# Entry
Amino acid sequence: MFEKGYNKARMNPGPRLKFQLNIEFDRWTCNNDVFHNSVIKDHPMLTESTDLEPDAKKAFNDRYVEKYYKTHKKDLEDAEEKMKDDWMTIESGYFEATDKLFNSRWPEGRYICYPSIFNCNPRFIGTKEFQVFYKHPETTNYVCAHEMLHFIFYDYIEKHYNQKYKRLEEKVIWKLSEIFNDVVLRLPEFIAITGQKDPGIYAETRDELNDAIKLWENTKTVGAFVTKYLVLFSNPVYNFPNN
Ligand SMILES: [Zn+2]
# Structure
């Protein structure tokens, strides 16, 4: 039997990922102070709103986003189409590779990627939605592959580490999820899919990344990697970098 969200026609072991422009989401990103530094890098005009009162700031930002969408309408629509087409070229290979890795169904949800005018790339684990900067230098395919991995990884952790998961701090799991992505997306089978040999790292240092790569080489399965990582991480005598 096929589960909801599983597309019979494609025979992929993964969910259909939709691509959809969403100006509201970009307004939210633009007005979120957490993203301010990343936002102004590509949109320096927005520094003008930095010191405004909250209401005036929001009005300024909203107008800016509105205008940008109007003046870049065609670019954005083309980007949405291209992201969709690009993903279609790798999705079956990607889902085969993730299937081998996790050997479990993808969590249910409406998977939606929103092309964004900002290079912030937030994702929502619960709803399976994420934004990808429409001019992302590492390619939108790479970012989609990265964000999608978070969704299945979190599901795996919740299913297999239910008891421990509740005791672990959210930031420990988040870091583990990012380090896992750093390692997995450097495996030859994933490089063949994304075309990215050495993408940006979440690990705080190259040494930390190399430790995680070594850990993978000694474990080779998601379960063993996670278990070993958590043991090492919670052991105060082991100096996992930045622990
Ligand atoms: Zn990530």
About this structure: Residues 161-243 form one domain. The mean pLDDT is 90. The radius of gyration is 19 Å.
